[in-house]
Amino acid sequence: MPAGREAASLRSSKPTFDFYELHILHHASDRQLYGLWMIEELAEHGYQVNASQLYPRFHRLEEKGYLDRSEKVVDGKQRKYYRLTREGKAYLKEQKRRLLELISEALTVEELSSALERRRKREEAKRLPA
To answer: Can you give the residue range of the structural domain that contains 37?
Structure first.
């Protein structure tokens, strides 16, 4: 697809935010992920999601060309792993831009500063030995 058409296909008048999908794409950008891991990760952020809610999102993202799927046998069971594609990376970048635009309008400077400070502390805590 030519670059201009690809960029145009990323834009839509229809709202496209799905926080589950954004989490999936974000995490698939730096690791192969699978369903149970993603359910546990979403739970850490306060989302209660089950496999019947999650796997249709994986399939939809795969059909759109944003995720690649591979399969591996783990402990005698077939496990599906997902990884971000080049198209998925472009889509995620656009969605992050839209999300940042919304957040910067919706939150005050103080709220943004406070959120960034909490994030900095979480990142710092991850780096400290237990």
So the answer is: 3-127
Query: In angstroms, rounded to a whole number, what is the distance separating the alpha carbons of residues 28 and 31?
Result: 5
pTM recorded for the entire structure: 0.75
What tens digit of pLDDT does each residue of 28-44 get?
A: 999 999 999 999 999 98
Phi, psi of 47, rounded to the nearest 5 degrees: -90, 130
DSSP secondary structure letter of residue 107: S
**CATH number of 89's domain:** 1.10.10.10
Number of domains in the chain: 1
Residues in the chain: 130
Q: Give the pLDDT band (50/70/90) at residue 23.
A: very high
Residue 114 neighbours by CB under 8 Å, 6+ apart: none
CA distances from 120 to 16, 41, 110, 114, 128 (A): 28, 19, 15, 10, 13
The secondary structure of the chain in percent helix, strand, coil, rounded to multiples of 5, reads 60, 15, 25
